[in-house]
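name: query_chain
kind: protein
chains: 1
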Amino acid sequence: MVEATRSIGMFDSGLGGLTVARAVIDLLPHESIVYFGDTARCPYGPRDPEEVRGFALEITDLLVAEEVKLVVVACNSAESTAFYESTGRYRVPIVTVIDPGVKAAVAATRNKRIGLIGTIATVASRAYDRALLRLRDDVVLESRACPAFVDFVEAGDTTSDDLLRTAREYLEPLKEAEIDTLILGCTHYPLLSGVIQYVMGEGVVLISSAEATATEVYARLLDLDLVNRSQGEGTRRFITSGRQDLFDELGRRFLGAELEGVEHRPWPSVPNARAAS
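structure:
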């Protein structure tokens, strides 16, 4: 029997998944977390889907070896590569980010015109289109790949003029489509919600899957009787495949004081690594 005191495992291609970690910590402060950010191989979006799926399985294997009680795939690119179809190999429950975000968007839209921004891999996979069709067949989804957004976040840039110009270029087609709800289909993107809201205007509701995913985690733990009911605050472990100093510096901006003691876990071989380990 799985012990409720075990940690929740969570992973992303880099820092973006910290938005999900933040939401889980806020909602479930007594839960312990082990977070893996694969910064040495970030970004996942432009990579071949099979390569990304392999990365996701590799990291999930690592988290399962840590004896976590549940795994959160805090990475849209990983989920959209049919990774979820391979999770039957694991006994631990898996929570992903796409369905919770789509449910929240469907509940929020007023004119039935929803926008989606994501990585190249996420948009090309049409995973959000399929998730939306399962829920509603009368809602239009307008999608736009915004690959440079991940680079801005990983560089710690959330305010520059270059970012604003890029955001306007990416988002103008969605404004012209008259969407009233926008799904931030990458866990990095909530960190750019200021500039995204500025460009889209106050009339557009931004949907971050972080809070919706945290709610799903809470529900799954309750259903499986795995909620940690101790009164002490949970522990937080953060592991990166890239540079510890960069992960620590940028991660603290987005997560706060909970991020400390970052561990380095290099892969035996990291092809096309963007950040040296």
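note: The two ends are 38 Å apart (CA to CA).
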